[in-house]
TrEMBL record:
Parts of the chain that traverse the membrane: 34-54
Transmembrane among keywords: yes
Pfam families the record matches: DivIC (PF04977)
Name this polypeptide is given: Septum formation initiator
Key word Coiled coil present: yes
Any GO BP annotation: cell division
The species this protein was found in: Streptococcus pseudoporcinus LQ 940-04
Keywords of the record: Coiled coil, Membrane, Transmembrane, Transmembrane helix
Coiled-coil ranges (or none): 57-94
């Protein structure tokens, strides 16, 4: 094999330039490290509010579902209440009370025979 014909000079200028180059590389590494820490801090500054925002959104969705469920229950209870009020108003009528007692409790007068038919109970 042939030896390279390039000769490296080791004078003061070359040593100073090499040292200057090492200092610049160290400064560049320090700057990159500093920028890396800044990037990590910025990521945390964005991650924490994003986490809180997602948590709040999930909580809001759960509350919306609960509100929908409660509205549905309210409608059902309101319908039941209206039906009960209507029945209470109808029970003020003596003829209706007689029909209701005959249909629901199979009450009869003397000599009567009751034939129960499903679905005829007054509501």
């Amino acid at each position: 094999m042939k030896k390279p014909s390039i000769v490296q000079l080791n004078n003061k200028f070359i040593k100073d330039e090499n040292q200057k180059k090492r200092f610049e590389e160290e400064e560049l590494q320090k700057r990159n490290r500093f920028m890396g820490w800044i990037l990590v801090i910025m990521m945390f500054l964005f991650i924490l509010p994003t986490y809180n925002l997602v948590k709040s959104y999930v909580s809001l969705q759960n509350q919306n579902q609960q509100v929908i469920k409660l509205k549905k229950e309210y409608k059902e209870l309101d319908a039941n209440t209206q039906a009960e009020k209507q029945l209470a108003n109808q029970l003020k009528d003596t003829n209706f009370v007689k029909k209701y007692a005959r249909a629901k409790y199979y009450l009869t007068q003397e000599g009567e025979v009751v034939y129960p038919i499903p679905g005829l109970l007054p509501k």
